[in-house]
Design brief:
The complex is a heterodimer. Chain A is an alpha+beta fold. Chain A is built from 17 helices and eleven strands. In chain A, strands 1, 2, 3, 4, 5, 6, 7, 8, 9, 10 and 11 form an eleven-stranded mixed beta sheet that branches. In chain A, helix 2 packs antiparallel against helix 12, helix 13 packs across helix 17 and helix 14 runs antiparallel to helix 16. The mean pLDDT of chain A is 86. Chain B is α+β, with helices and mostly antiparallel strands. In chain B, the strands form three sheets. In chain B, strands 3, 4, 5, 7, 8, 9 and 10 form a seven-stranded mixed beta sheet that branches. In chain B, strand 8 and strand 9 form a beta hairpin. In chain B, helix 9 packs antiparallel against helix 10. Chain B is elongated, with a radius of gyration of 33 Å. The model of chain B has no long low-confidence stretch (mean pLDDT 89). Classes of the chains: A alpha+beta, B alpha+beta.
């Protein structure tokens, strides 16, 4: 019976073509609007490292001045100072540790057809690569000894490697960065976490990817200043060493724990560390020392902006309007078929059968609306992606969203069809037959 | 007007009218809020930066391939680069500068009217220049003067914290620091607070100079211009004004000239002020664009709903209309009947929509930090939907009025 009703539903699309077209179009537009905004929200709020995001921990404590500070105020900055970072790296807490700075540096290619250019990269420690599951195409991360020595070693992204060396494997070669020779230890395979959680402060969560990585110790040895946010609350002596020794905050830090349950232990250690620093005359604000896991950190930094939420809300409001509209139109479509229902009922069809038939017919409308809505949302996402580089990164559809689209279209059409279908069943056969 | 019979006819078959009223209500609630948000964003986007004729402005960043060089060598290079740029045909004026409005990258400092204060009055963007921004950017001086040649300093940031004592500030910062006076010349203020805070004095006040972030609200108007060239490494930024219509050519020539002068050992990045402005406001423009699209679709869907339902009612009532016509009702009577009916439904919808708009706005204000909705958007939205309702029903109503009494009463429906 289902397939028969399904075919009937398809055939009935041609009945009142204007009304049906309007219904399908309305449904499609509503679905497209909500799907495209939802996709963006979904990608923005996605977990970039689902298997270990609760073991990746950002520590945050407040080294701001006490002057003008009231307990409960927001922390002075979301980053840490160089001194604190060095002590956290040396702490041995967690399985892995890294601090990260942003670097803008000139690269002078060997190839004469590519001119010198400025590339953006980052300065972590070697743990960074294992911690964030960075895949390697050739070679690998630098060694702990390189970190200690501040060696001039570099890891390239696949894109930068191809720009500089084409198809060649450049591992073991030397390249010029800021006029210094760096040894290439590895080339990453495509690694494009969204949002770009590891250096959100200063770089943004949806910015273009970092093109190279050099040890933090090498960057500071060459006196490279952070490319990103640097926050100094007090005057400091001139010069790079004074900058490192200052309370300026400019580094982000990550711990990787062996298991999420180690978090309480880390919190205790952090509190003890802060107390010890306080005795030395630092961290006088005595503000709470916080730990965030990856998703908590994204939430804390408000990665999903209010504008994106607004778009999604309004798009859903719009979908509701489209559904109300569809209910009205379905009502109109079904009400002219009262006589047909009357005849079928008189010939012995039960109310349940009529209900079944009309609901299948509604689902057909939903299905057609869904297919069209899907096509439209691809168009909408393409339009959104044209707006900016950042949106190009987030405006792509995945399988989850594809299934959601279909479920939503058909589901909402069926929902919209319930009332008209119920009304259609209420037809009294005798009255209908008499009026003929 | 025969309101009572129309009303009782409506009450007998409520579902359709309720659905139409509901559509009007939802549309109105969303539309009034959406259009208001669009207007708020448009106001943000159209704030002036203080720079005259932005379409003639180009920013050029130059960096050396090597990062280490002694102060004097860097200083000489930067002076040479400024000369090279001045010699490019079509260049009206060149200034070296540390940061530019709307570019979203730069240095800020807290400023205080008194060093004994607990907290600074506000943060302000620090613009360093060894040239005249008043001249190159066309900033309008409202008090005082531009910097004198003797006030400029070349500073080696690696070895000193010294700064020049003269500054030019925009009116907004002056008002923020000294709300009780309107003569700001010669007044001192401080970078930071406490005994070590640097004191500077105002020599000029410009009408406006937006900060690098161009933040919404007063923070976006806070900046300080200091007569200095601060050198911490071999990189520099220049801002230049091109002759009208010459910008793109000048940009290419300037880049080439700098490369040539640097023996191809420099990296040069150019950007127009227009690009900075577009980048800064891309999100606002994108949101506005999306909201306008949704608003248009809302109206289309609502109108189509009204047309669809009204057409259905006309079909259902063919017979009655025929009878009425046969009993002497004129075309205009039929037309009026349907329009009155629609106005009644739409008005109900609008009333519900007004409440809905306020509720939605309350939600947006509390959850998403949006602005409160002014009353004129509610009234405007209501007017739009009343007009839309009449326009949408006019077609079906006209068709109803055109039903010939003879065929209508004869036919089997």
């Amino acid at each position: 019976m289902f397939s028969y009703y399904f075919k009937l539903g398809l055939r009935n699309l041609r009945r009142n073509p204007a009304l049906t077209a309007l219904m399908v179009l309305t449904l499609a537009v509503g679905v497209a609007a909500s799907i495209s905004t939802l996709t963006i929200l979904h990608v923005m709020s996605g977990d970039p490292m689902p298997h270990k995001s609760n073991r990746l921990i950002v520590p945050l404590f407040d080294n701001g001045p006490t002057k003008g500070y009231a307990p409960g105020d927001e922390p002075n900055d979301n980053q840490l100072s160089y001194g604190d970072v060095q002590r956290l790296l040396a702490s041995g807490k967690g399985e892995r540790r890294t601090a990260i700075m942003g670097i803008g540096a000139s690269i002078e290619p060997d190839r004469k057809d590519v001119g010198a250019f400025i590339a953006t990269g980052a300065g972590p420690t070697k743990d960074f690569f294992a911690m964030f599951d960075v895949p390697f195409l050739h070679g690998g991360a630098w060694s702990e000894a390189d970190d200690k020595a501040g060696a001039d070693v570099i890891v390239l992204t696949r894109k930068l490697s191809e720009k500089l060396y084409g198809d060649e494997v450049p591992v073991g070669r030397r390249m010029k960065l800021n006029g210094h020779e760096f040894l290439i230890t590895g080339v990453m395979d495509k690694w494009d976490p969204i949002p770009r959680f590891y250096r959100v402060v200063g770089a943004g969560a949806f910015s273009t990817e970092d093109e190279f990585f050099i040890p933090l110790s090498s960057a500071t040895r060459h006196e490279i200043f952070n490319s990103g946010n640097t926050n100094c609350t007090a005057d400091r002596a001139p010069g790079y060493q004074a900058f490192l020794d200052s309370e300026c905050t400019w580094l982000q830090f990550w711990f990787e724990l062996r298991s999420a349950s180690d978090r309480a232990d880390l919190q205790n250690w952090l509190d003890a560390y802060a107390a010890e620093q306080r005795k030395l005359g630092r961290l006088q604000r005595n503000a709470p020392n916080k730990l965030f896991d990856l998703m908590e950190w994204m939430e804390y930094l408000k990665i999903v902006g209010n504008d994106n939420k607004l778009s999604a809300w309004l798009a859903f409001g719009f979908l509701v309007l489209c559904l109300v509209n569809t209910i009205g139109l379905l009502l109109a479509k079904f009400s002219v078929r009262a006589s047909e229902v009357g005849v079928r009922r008189a010939l012995g069809a039960s109310r349940k059968e009529i209900f079944h038939q009309f609901l299948v017919e509604t689902a057909v409308v939903g299905l057609v609306g869904g297919v069209l809505g899907l096509a439209l949302s691809f168009g909408a996402l393409a339009l959104i992606a044209m707006q900016s580089k950042a949106l190009t990164i987030v405006a792509h559809m995945d399988w989850v969203m594809l299934i959601v689209t279909f479920a939503m279209a058909v589901g909402s059409a069926i929902l919209a069809g319930l009332l008209p279908t119920w009304r259609a069943c209420q037809v009294t056969p005798a009255l209908q037959l008499k009026s003929q | 007007m025969e309101i009572r019979p129309i009303l009782s006819a409506l009450m007998r078959n409520k579902t359709g009218p309720i659905l139409v009223a509901l559509q009007v209500a939802i549309s109105l609630a969303i539309l009034s809020n959406a259009l208001h948000i669009v207007k708020v964003r448009q106001e943000v986007v159209s704030r002036p930066s203080g720079i005259e004729k932005e379409e003639e402005i180009i920013h050029i960043r130059v960096g050396d391939l090597k990062t280490e060089a002694p102060f004097n060598e860097i200083l000489a290079t930067q002076k040479m680069q400024a000369q090279v740029l001045r010699a490019v045909p079509g260049v009206v004026s060149v200034a070296q500068v540390s940061q530019t409005p709307l570019s979203r990258s730069g240095r800020n400092s807290g400023v205080a009217a008194d060093r004994k204060q607990e907290k600074v009055n506000t943060g302000a963007g620090q613009f360093f220049t060894p040239d005249s921004l008043v001249k190159t950017w066309g900033l309008r001086l409202v008090q005082g003067r531009d910097f004198l040649p003797t006030e400029y300093m070349d500073i080696d940031e690696k070895n000193t914290n010294e700064i020049p004592r003269s500054v030019i500030i925009p009116l907004a910062l002056a008002k923020k620091l000294w709300p009780d006076t309107d003569n700001y010349l010669g007044k001192p203020f401080y970078f930071g607070t406490g005994d070590t805070a640097d004191e500077v004095r105002v020599v000029g006040v410009v009408e406006r100079m937006q900060s690098t972030g161009a933040e919404v609200g007063e923070r976006g108007e806070m900046s300080v211009i200091q007569p200095m060239r601060a050198i911490s490494g071999p990189r520099a930024m220049f801002t230049l004004r091109a002759e009208p219509g010459q910008r793109d050519r000048v940009m290419k020539d300037a880049e080439e000239a700098l490369r040539k002068a640097g023996n191809n050992q420099v990296v040069v990045r150019t950007k127009t002020m227009e690009q900075d402005r577009n980048d800064r406001y891309r999100a606002d423009k994108g949101l506005s664009w999306m909201l306008v699209t949704v608003s248009v679709l809302l109206m289309l869907v609502t109108a189509s709903g009204i047309v669809g339902m009204a057409s259905l009612w006309v079909t259902q009532r063919r017979k009655q209309i025929g009878v009425r016509r046969a009993l002497g009702a004129r075309k205009t009577d039929i037309l009026r009947y349907f329009i009155t009916e629609n106005v009644m439904i739409t008005t109900t919808g609008v009333a519900a929509g007004l409440l809905g708009a306020l509720a939605l706005n309350q939600l947006l204000v509390t959850k998403l930090e949006m602005a409160r909705l002014p009353a004129d958007y509610l009234l405007g939205g209501a007017a739009i939907f009343l007009a839309l309702g009449v326009a949408a029903v006019y077609g079906p109503a006209w068709r109803a009025a055109s039903i010939s009494p003879a065929t209508a009463t004869r036919g089997v429906v």
